[in-house]
Amino acid sequence: QGLEFQRVLDFPTPGVRMLLLCHVLTVAVVQTFIFSENRVFAKNINFYNVRPPLDPTPFPNSFKCFTCENAGDNYNCNRWAEDKWCPQNTQYCLTVHHFTSHGRSISITKKCASRSECHFVGCHHSQDSEHTECRSCCEGMICNVELPTNHTNAVFAVMHAQRTSGSGVPVLYLPVLAWAFVLPLI
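^ LY6/PLAUR domain containing 6B, sequence as received from the core. Prediction below:
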């Protein structure tokens, strides 16, 4: 009787086998759909929300920054920023934010900057005026969207690696991999 019970566990009935197969196929189809949908959506997302410039670049690796001088708030600074290429002797976008102890912006300056202008990033509180100045620098096309407000975001953000068009495992192979696991069960 124990041997027959073991055979039942080793070889499920055709109904149980069909149920397991349907479950595995359903999971594989759903995963294939999810992976393929994510791949399509990821291709269409503009992560920086910045359109490529229509005018040709003036020199290799050229870029633009939001630029304003003593703006009252970040919205108006970004909204009315000049749309021009940074000079060739600059590599970064600098943001200088002056604000009260209650967090109200006093002035915002954004511009293209050289490496030497980016050495003094961080926040500094002035005892005399009770105001705080936070400075940040970043690398990349119009990267200075946000304002530095504390030591966490008042940093010198530099890209360390070149972006490539592909990843280690193409998404296209994931459905094939799923089928490789399903076929032995059939």
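Residues 161-174 have pLDDT under 50 and may be disordered.
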